[in-house]
Amino acid sequence: MRWNLAYRTLLHDRGKLTAGLVGVIFSVVLVNLQGGLFLGLMGKTSTLIDRSDAQIWVGHRGMRNVDFAHPFPERWQYVVAGLKGVDQVEPLRVEFAEMSMPDGNFETVVLVGVQEDSDLGRPYEIVTGPADALQKNDAVVIDDCDQDLLRDPALNELREINGRRIRIAGKSHGVIGFLANPYVFTRYEQLAELTGFDRRDTSYLLVQLKPDADADAVCEAIEARLPDVSAMTASQYAWTSADFWIRRTGIGLSFGAATLLGLLVGLVMVGQTLYAMVLDRVSEYATLRAIGLNERELLSVLIMQSAIVAIVGIAIGFVLTVVLQGALSTPKATIEIPTLLYLGCGILIFVICLVASALPYLRIRRIDPHVVLQG
After folding, report:
1. Does residue 285 have a pLDDT over 70?
2. Distance between CA 226 and CA 304 in Å, rounded?
3. How far apart are the first and last CA of the chain?
4. Nearest CA among 271, 283, 284, 292 for reference residue 361
5. For residue 255, which of 172, 322, 341 has the smallest C-alpha distance?
6. Inter-residue contact 97 to 108 (CB < 8 Å)
7. Taking every pair of C-alpha atoms in the chain, what is the biggest distance, in angstroms?
8. Rounded distance, CA 110 to CA 45, Å?
9. Which of 33, 40, 139, 310 has its CB surrounded by the most CB atoms within 10 Å?
10. What integer is the mean pLDDT of 173-181?
11. Long-range CB contacts (< 8 A, 24+ apart) of 48-53?
């Protein structure tokens, strides 16, 4: 009976029902898209880490962000290579540089020097150009998603980095960092030639472990043998890089505030819808009270109404979110919405809708059936 009453009451005023559904749909879409944009943006803070095959990253003590590396002696790789559980160690160099543009201007780029004969630490796949692009003299690889920043260079086009000639030998796709500075990949030794980087130094040591090795134990062993370095698993360093930008930019606060606003809008619209329905039918609810419907049963009717609005609105919101994600997500503005975010958003908004039923309930419980019916 109560389900039938709740359902029919909602359908009787479809205008108010639509307003409530719009509030829920708006909240679902906003929370998911905001959360997806935030996760996509934070994913860019660790692009080099996530796309490498390294299980452990070793950098100068206190390393906090993958793009801001501090040099340390390259020879330390032999110390790391001799530790129990270590299978392979490769150095990686990261340095800022300036690339010349055809119009005479310059663009600051993040130059990444990789070992050409190893996949460890190489974060890109060639999509335009030969697979061995970096084996050519003066060769660099850029990402086609950053072509606009680099003024659309053609394959084999000549440019300069720090006044030294280079050739665009290949292009990757989707390797974009958090900074507005494009990644440019080159041979490990050539980075030193282009930037004046001390050949005796490196930026990182990338470690691949043997099958049964304990990553945390190896990290502790590295730091014990080399007190001037920090060693982190790939997942730990990815989180450290993301946390660095969250704290430095306040980006988490801005996204969180927008998400909270969406939830409040949904709460207000659902609560207002249910409250307006109660006000329009004060006499009907008074009649129900007069014939013996107690407060608990009346509350259950309102909760059922909220549940119906929530379930229908969340379902529509999920469908709309998937459509918008496919239409709006790009490599530069990636929207990553994991299943856990969908699930958490749905549960949260469902609970908020149930809480919203408290507003009309407070109005109903003050109704005096005799006064209303006599009036």
Report:
1. no
2. 63
3. 27
4. 271
5. 341
6. yes
7. 96
8. 13
9. 310
10. 89
11. 48/94, 48/112, 48/123, 48/177, 48/183, 49/234, 49/237, 49/238, 49/241, 50/234, 50/238, 51/123, 51/124, 51/175, 52/120, 52/121, 52/122, 52/123, 52/206, 52/234, 53/119, 53/120, 53/121, 53/208
Cα–Cα distance measured from residue 194 to residue 122, given in angstroms and rounded to the nearest whole number: 19
More confident residue, 90 or 26: 90
pTM as predicted: 0.82
Print the SS3 string covering the chain: CHHHHHHHHHHHCHHHHHHHHHHHHHHHHHHHHHHHHHHHHHHHCCHHHHCCCCCEEEEECCCCCCCCCCCEECCHHHHHHCCCCEEEEEEEEEEEEEEECCCCCEEEEEEEEECCCCCCCCCCCCCECCCCHHHCCCEEEEEHHHCCCCCCCCCCCEEEECCEEEEEEEEECCCCCCCCCCEEEEEHHHHHHHHCCCCCEECEEEEEECCCCCHHHHHHHHHHHCCCEEEEEHHHHHHHHHHHHHHHHCHHHHHHHHHHHHHHHHHHHHHHHHHHHHHHCHHHHHHHHHCCCCHHHHHHHHHHHHHHHHHHHHHHHHHHHHHHHHHHCCCCCCCCCCHHHHHHHHHHHHHHHHHHCHHHHHHHCCCCHHHHHHC
60 beta partners: 229
Residue 166 has pLDDT above 90, yes or no: yes
Token couple for 149: 């920043």
Q: Which amino acid is at 297?
A: E
φ, ψ of residue 314 to 5 degrees: the values are -65, -40
pLDDT value at 64 more than 80: yes
Confidence at residue 293, expressed as pLDDT on a 0 to 100 scale: 66
Distance separating alpha carbons of residues 179 and 170, to the nearest angstrom: 22
pLDDT digits (tens, 9 = 90+) for 65-89: 999 999 999 999 999 999 999 999 9
Q: Are strands 72-73 and 204-209 parallel, antiparallel or unpaired?
A: unpaired
> What CA–CA distance (Å, rounded) separates 66 from 50?
11
Q: Which two tokens stand for residue 290?
A: 């007069």
Contact 329, 43 (CB under 8 A): no
In a 13 Å sphere around the CA of 152, the CA atoms on its Cβ side amount to: 0
